[in-house]
Amino acid sequence: KNEVEQSPQNLTAQEGEFITINCSYSVGISALHWLQQHPGGGIVSLFMLSSGKKKHGRLIATINIQEKHSSLHITASHPRDSAVYICAVRSQGAQKLVFGQGTRLTINP
Amino acid sequence: DAGITQSPRYKITETGRQVTLMCHQTWSHSYMFWYRQDLGHGLRLIYYSAAADITDKGEVPDGYVVSRSKTENFPLTLESATRSQTSVYFCASSAEDRDYGYTFGSGTRLTVV
Asked: What percent of chain A has pLDDT over 70?
């Protein structure tokens, strides 16, 4: 079993829908990252969380440390949100990241 | 420009050749990382460095060599390229402050023929 599990692996939705991507992890962490990668593109850091909730525009990220679970929400989804979203955790006492397998999101117009 | 720069963006090389991928960052971040990204495997850590002259192996170090003589540079060398090393390679950096996030380079797409 991977240390970081994401669900779903693939998600297709219509423009305007509310999107939720989930991430569960099995180790103690000091921080959790949500990353975005467009097709053929680089990797962009969206959020870094160690507790609670963060919001940036239409994106919201939450984390529950006790349950070892995080969610990334996209409100009013748009075709430009189509990308792979990757959850990554930094274990306690470490600086390197452990990555989930990614969620491929497709938003149709 | 400030940031983290990888070069080249694309590279085709032959089996057995040595190839070096470059990574340069302008923030003086302590930590630098090399990852490879493959379908079905996601991102996997090859090597990382906590400071100049300090490097350590990641998950998949075999066939790779790194060096870090200066804080800003972290080259990755494939000593004798193999087809299994065909991949997209990402360099990343992070400050020592644990509240600081990661920044990734744009990636190098390497094809070994």
From this structure: 99
